Structure formats: structure tokens, C-alpha cells
Amino acid sequence: MSPNQMQSPFSAGPPSARLLTVVAALMLGAPVNLPAQKSSSPASDVYLARAKRILATTPLIDGHNDLPWRIREDSIARGNVDAYDLSKHTPGHTDLDRLKAGMVGAQFWSVYTPGDWRDSGYARIQLEQIDIARRVIARYPDRLALALSANDIRREFRQGKLASLLGLEGGHAIENSLGALRAYYDLGVRYMTLTHNVTLDWADAALDSAKHGGLTPFGDSVVREMNRLGMLVDLAHVSPGTMSDVLNVTRAPVIFSHSGARALVDVPRNVPDSILRRVTTNGGIVMVPFVTGFVSPDVMRYDASSRPIITDLQAKYGKDTAAITREINQWRAAHPEPRATLSQVADQIDYVRKVAGVDHVGIGSDFDGITEVVQGLEDVSKFPNLFAELARRGWSDADLRKLAGENLLRVFDQAEAVAKRLQAGRQISALPRTRSADRSQ
Fold first, then answer.
1. DSSP SS3 for 295
2. Three-state SS annotation for 96-121
3. What's the pLDDT score for residue 40?
4. Is 366 in the active site?
5. 335 is catalytic
6. Active-site residue among 172, 212, 258, 360?
7. What is the overall mean pLDDT for the chain?
8. Residue 196 annotated in active site
9. Mind listing the pLDDT tens digit for each residue in 298-313?
10. What are the angstrom distances between the C-alpha of 185 and each of 30, 166, 279, 308?
11. Which residue among 93, 172, 212, 237 is the active-site one?
12. Which of 27, 47, 196, 390, by CA, is between 20 and 30 Å from 171?
């Protein structure tokens, strides 16, 4: 990738996804979580109490949490679900007690795999990630329950359990195979992010070159098959051209599992106004993340200024990571990173509401897939703070319920209804896989 296509070393996504662009996080030893500071505008107790009353009766559905990859990459657990004990305070952003404190009612666990790490094949790594996620869910049956439908979410919430869904992050994992796509659905995957940061044979990514101008004909087939299955189409990482092409093809509402508004913070991973308006027509939902560089203009500018520094250090020191670490730490000490705030996340939510409408906004935190955290939203226990801030800004109880989970449940219901209609009248493709993606329908 060229420098202007590379992610910031402090941007979103699991660490291994950024090895190419972050030689800083790469082996820099940069701290994972900066010390939390007190929110600049804490909501008063009355607003917090109101937020908690709402979340007690409406499932808070978070669209994106990278815990399975965090477990895989943990320096001690190394993919060991038992060793990464969620019944205790974990080194990351997520554990059972903090999920309870945050009043999370349903969680899409991202089963992410890097798009630039072929290893022995994307599918093998993808299956391992699904295995980790499902073993996590099975290990805590009194607290977590696998959910495969919108009604499963409602049922588990009534029973006091956290409904756990799987979201596949990156269509490279299907290896140009509709058969693989169907197999992932059978394993419990209920959304697929069409790309991660790498352009595929059939879809352009936001952070890579636009080779196709959006979707190829096979990409159209992927979307249609997802519609037929009832799998949510996630546009969080794709290019604007791909977003537009999907909205032309899909018969079901789309989601953006963790993307903000580009008008407020101009990064490629955020959603342009033109697409926000089309999401309204489509009936979909944009789930605002807690990624500092996506919600704070100051952090975005800081990230941009850090890129040439890292490039110069790579050229100067090559593989001498100790020297790179020393100099980047000196630079950071002389140039303290600005902090993203809870208020800026609320600004993003307000903006999506303004352009797309209150029926088309949700939350997709990206916890355990981010490094730096938002002040006031440091981990999964802090969700009520955000609802309290929006209540302080004048959001009604009804609108807060839509944001929390009702919008996502509506989208999921509609996707399931579309699937039921399509399954009644359409046969499965007889060509599930081919070497050339565009020859498979």
C-alpha cells in the first residue's frame, strides 16, 4: 500500500491487521491503553439512572467486539479460552463483570482474520476464530448464549443472558466460494463484513486501491446469497463504490458494524453523507464505533502527522526495533496524543441521526480491537455513560431504545423476512466455487 492508503499506527482493528502499516505497534511496545481521564462533561446521576432504566428493559446490542482475536493474540493465553478467564478482570476491555456493569444485552463477537496474512489459507484461520468464539460462549452457559436470530436475542435478554452472535470480518475468508459462505452461516455467522483492509477479487476496500470500482459480478452474487441466507451485509470496511453497489443490489437492509460519519472526521473508514442518506432508503443501520481516530478530528490529525515519522524511522533503523521504540517514544513524549472524548462519540451518533434518521443509528464499539480508548468509554462497563450523555442532550426514551437495540432488531427481522421469501423461490447456486471469482454465480 502507498502511505496515503495506510492505517495510522493508532487506528482501529486487531493488532496483526496493522503489522504492515504500523511498524510502531508492530514491535514498538506502545502502551495498549492510555491512562483514563475524567470525562469533560460527565452526565449527572439523574441521566445515568434514566439510561440504566432503559437498558434494563431494552437489549443494548453492540455491533462489534474483537475479543476472539484478543484471546488468540494474548501473550499468555495464546488462544487458550480457559486461560483467558472472563470470570476475572482481563487485561483487555471485556470480561463478564464489566459486561454486566455495562448492561450489554447482546454482542456480535467479531471472528476477524487478517486479509494480508494467508498462512495456510484464510479459511483455516477463520474456522479457528469461529471455534474460539463458540468455545467462549459455551464456557459460560449461565451468562452467555449463542444467538442465531432476532428472536434469540429477545429470548436470551428476557432470561438474563447475553445473546452472543458471530460477525465474520473480511470476505477474504470465503476464498471466492459461495459454498464456504453457506458453511460459515451454518456455523453461526450472522453478518459478514465484505472486506477488511485489503481489496478482494470481488470487492474494493476503503483502505486499499479501488481495483473494481466497487463490486464485481461475483460480488453481486455474494450479496444476493447473503440475502438468501439471512446473513447481514456489513459495509464497515468497504470503499464508497462498494457501498453504493451493494445498496443497488441488496434486497435486505445493510449494516455498518463499526463506522462513523465522514463529514465529522474525514477518514476512509467513515461513511459519506451520500451513503448515509441511502441507508435511510435501504432501511439499514450505521453503528458508531469508539475508535479514537474515527470520532475525534484532533486524533485523526495526530495520526496523520505520525505516519511520516514512522516511515522515516523504518528507513533509518530498518529492523532495529529498539531504536525505533526509543525514538518514537521520544517523539510521543514531545507531542502528547490528544484524547477522544465521550462527547465526540455522542456527536457522531447525533450526526448520523440528523442525516440518516433516528431509526438508522446504533453502536459498534470495536472494544478489544482498538488500542487507545475514548475518555469515559474505556471498556465495556461504560456504555451507560454514553446513553446518559445523549439523554442529557434531549434524546427521548423511545429514541434511546432505538439506538440501544431496537434498530438492529428491526434490521435483523427484515433480513430474515427477505431470506424467507428468497428461499421460497430461488435455488442454491450449482457452482459454489471456481478459480475465477467472476465465473461463479
1. helix
2. HHHHHHCCEEEEEEECCCCCCCCCCC
3. 42
4. yes
5. no
6. 258
7. 88
8. yes
9. 999 998 888 788 888 8
10. 37, 9, 24, 42
11. 237
12. 27
Q: In 3D, which of 410, 388, 380, 374 has the Cα closest to residue 103?
A: 380
CA distance 225 to 68: 26
Distance CA 190, CA 50 (A): 31
Going by the DSSP 8-state scheme, the letter that residue 83 receives in this structure is T
Predicted structure pTM score: 0.87
Q: Which residue has the cell 446504533?
A: 362
- Kindly tell me the burial class for residue 38, based on how many C-beta atoms sit within 10 Å of its own C-beta (0-12, 13-18, 19 or more): exposed
Q: Which of 62, 66, 95, 372 is catalytic?
A: 66
Evaluate whether 253 touches 245 at the Cβ level (below 8 Å).
no
Q: Hey, which bits of 178-297 come out as E strands?
A: 189-193, 232-234, 254-256, 285-288
Q: Is 258 designated active site? A: yes
Q: Which residue has the higher pLDDT, 438 or 159?
A: 159
d(CA 409, CA 169): 20
Q: Are 265 and 297 in contact (CB under 8 A)?
A: yes
Checking if the pLDDT of 21 tops 90, the result is: no
pLDDT at 119: 73
| Catalytic residue check, 66 | yes
10 Å Cβ neighbour count for 119? Answer: 9
Is 64 noted as a catalytic residue in this protein? yes
Among the listed residues 250, 275, 271, 249, the one whose alpha carbon sits nearest the alpha carbon of residue 261: 271
Q: Which of 62, 95, 156, 169 is catalytic?
A: 169
pLDDT at 19 over 70: no
Helices 407-425 + 150-158 axis angle, to 10? 140
Mean pLDDT, residues 275-289: 98
Q: Which three cell numbers stand for residue 187?
A: 456455523
Instruction: State how far the alpha carbon of 245 is from the alpha carbons of 149, 223, 354, 408, 412, in Å.
Output: 26, 10, 24, 22, 21
108-163 pLDDT, tens per residue? Answer: 999 999 998 767 789 999 999 999 999 999 999 999 999 999 999 999 999 999 99
Query: Quick check: 272 pLDDT over 90?
Result: yes
**pLDDT per position as a tens digit, 204-242:** 999 999 999 999 999 999 999 999 999 999 999 999 999
What distance in Å separates the CA atoms of residue 128 and residue 144, rounded to the nearest whole number?
20
